[in-house]
Amino acid sequence: MKKPHFLAAWLMLAAGTGYAQSPVQFNAKAIVAISDADLSASALVDGNRYTTPGVRDQLTYIQLPLNRNGQGIGTANVSSSMALTDKVLAVSNNGRVGFVVEGRGQLSDSLATIKGINDFAPSNYMFIVDMSAPQKPVVKYRFPTGTGGLSAVALAPNGTSLIVASGEAGKEIKMIDVDATGKPTRVLTAGSPAQGVAITDVAFHPGGQFVAYTTAAGEVGLMKYAIDDKTKKPYVIAHGKAVKVGSQPGSGKFTPDGKYFIIADSKDNKVFAVEFSTEDTPADAKIASQVAVGETPEALAISPDGATVAVVSSLQSGQPFTNAAAGKSEIALFGLQGGQLAAGSKTTVDGIMPQAVEFDKSGDNLAVGVSEYMDYGMRNGGIEFYKVTKGAQPSLTKQPGRISVTRGVHAIRVVN
């Protein structure tokens, strides 16, 4: 019964017929992803890590377009923590250097259960990864930066300066100059604009002269980033008052024109558009608009034209497999015009705890990092792809192909 189908397949191959296009459409040079293999998503609920012996946290470099032999994909063991979602990865514009904040250390495979995320000790290390040979990325430096635990990293548009967020009292902000290879050449520190409050996220303004910051108290504010004329050293100073954005804000991003800062709150399940003043005279931050989103938003992306915002939410997908809600998460699209967010479509993801999302340079396609799936046996994470239909109420269509990566993928960056 199967022979005619087999013969037909060979005839199609001989005739050169088949897919009219690749099952993955994504307009970029490469994707860089990091994975935390130390625990399953449900470990934060029932304590069971379900580790795979020998599988370690990894950075994955994926050259595009894809081919099925896997020759365009390289990996390196790099420790990171999914507890910090997508805030812990920065990549140089040319894709040759990666910066990974460890966040929390690793545990031995022999430890089958945990009591909570605090079983993973806070880490003050940042890894600098040489990705100039994409098939063989390698960690060049393991760089200690103070005490108190690091929580986020942002690379300036000029590619030579980093801002790192931390919980170190009085030194919550680290300013690190790097050379073309990523090697740190100078480290300076500054206190939190909110005295005594830890900084949980940082993001450079597209112009490079300002940095948005998020505090452990749930506020978002703006700092001016400048170079002292005499000492030639960088410094930061608060630029207007911060604004409260929910109870547990996650990572945020500037719109391409720098007019608005979009951030999701993972406890109140809202997305905020925040307006900052970048004029010489500081003005207080204010909320331009806010909309509801699915339970536990983990990360967001903004299209290159600034008109569409994509938010990935975990919902209850990270519950143990016996829970009926396990394995189902969500992508929500929003239109953005003049600082006003408008709800678009929602798409169900058959995967657990997506924590990373990025548009390609055309804005026509979306990549989503899925931590893991409801799989038994070989348990991996994945990067899925969606076609974007633009408009006032944008929508998504899932593409047929995906990239299998080490489970626990929680941050991706696009190299254009």
UniProtKB/TrEMBL annotation:
UniProt cross-references to SUPFAM superfamilies, sorted A to Z: C-terminal (heme d1) domain of cytochrome cd1-nitrite reductase
Report the superkingdom from the record: Bacteria
Q: Which Gene3D superfamilies match?
A: YVTN repeat-like/Quinoprotein amine dehydrogenase
> InterPro entries from the entry?
Haem_d1_sf, Host-pathogen_enzymatic-act, Lactonase_7-beta_prop, WD40/YVTN_repeat-like_dom_sf
What keywords would UniProt list here? Signal
> Which residues constitute the signal peptide according to the record?
1-20
Tell whether Protein biosynthesis is among the UniProt keywords.
no
**What is the protein named?**
Uncharacterized protein
Q: Which organism is it from?
A: Fibrella aestuarina BUZ 2
